[in-house]
Design goal:
This protein has 18 helices and 8 strands. The chain has 423 residues and is mainly α. The protein has one domain: Glycosyltransferase (Alpha/alpha barrel), CATH 1.50.10.10. A two-stranded antiparallel sheet has the order 1-2. The chain has a two-stranded antiparallel ribbon with strand order 3-6. It has a two-stranded antiparallel ribbon with strand order 4-5. A hairpin with a 4-residue loop joins strand 4 and strand 5. Helix 2 packs parallel to helix 5 and helix 6 crosses helix 12.
Amino acid sequence: MTAQDPLAKIAEDILRENDRGSYTVPTKGLYPFQWNWDSCLTALGQRHYDEARAWTEIETLFAHQWPCGMVPHIIFHLYDDGYFPGPEVWSTGRPVPTSGITQPAVAGFALRRLFDRASNRAEAEARVRALLPKVAAWHRWFFATRDPKGEGLVAIIHPWESGRDNSIDWDVSFERVPTEGIAPYTRRDTQHANPEHRPTKAQYDRYLWLVEHFRSLGWDTAKLHDASPFQVVDPGFNAILLRACADLADLAEALGEPALAAENRAFAARGLAALERLWSVEHGQYLCGDRTTGALIDSASVGGLLAAFAAIPPARAQAIAASIEAHGARFRVPSHAPADPRFDAKRYWRGPVWLVVNYMIADGLARAGQTAAAAAITRSSLDLIHESGFAEYYDPTTGEPLGGGRFTWTAAMVLEFLAMERA
């Protein structure tokens, strides 16, 4: 990073500020632990000033992989009562406490990006070789436990797994989740951020019912899919997994692991073919599928645009670029279509802009040849930072910063966006 680039300096300062030595917290107070996909995307920012530290971020995450292959969405390294639900609620029985669900499998993509852009190739190769079988085991776990009929796509069984906790995509399916019998609880997130910008109590009741239900099954990940009343096939979640499979296959091939390469190429090919079942001509994007009913969910969210991160057909990428342009929001990319009456510009994943999603959409569109659309997303993202600072998320109409401040993965994405602009 150059001293002449003030945004880069601030971004690096934020990453260092939230660094806990071997892992990084998303922000002080609101999120005091290590989150799965946060860490993988954070590593992409760290590599701009400390490649070795970037590798350590992902290695720390995978040091807490479960024997079955799952990588949990939270690792509770140190006790902190500022977050709910904490380790005592999850009660997963791990040596270092973790949650019992997972998150978007972006690690394979992060490994390839770190490896491809490494200045120290020998160190990068050694560290990739150690991580490769672990990431492959995670991918294998996904298709074994979340795609029981071999359809090619995996389901999430809790909205938190998607990373888009309170998306409008989940509303109808989430109604099947009961709320009776949950233990009394006190939220902590609304003590750190405006409650009007966070998920509602009704949603939290259902989040907690699912956690308690899965806990009653002993966190047996082979049983949880069929036991969950919430089973949704999210195109964005799957696109991240399929991109990671393809990237891992390329790495495995380059490092002389043909069996891992073939396995992950097969996952990617079958999944990309199956993804076409989620395409909506009406909306010009992919939609979520409700596995319980077999129906598409009529909800045009950023999850369906995020599918561009995978190697979707060029015509689909072009249509997604056009859909983003048609949204007409001042800042790209709103997490839900602004024309939808359910759109909420300030409430978490029901409207606001998130730079991590922007980054993946822009990357996918650029790879698909939609360079103008990708450049527009990059420029809009950096305009947001110039105007509103390094927030967790933003109002797409006003640019108002929302959620946590001095946010880690926002800072990491700024470093990546600056590099994309220079390129």
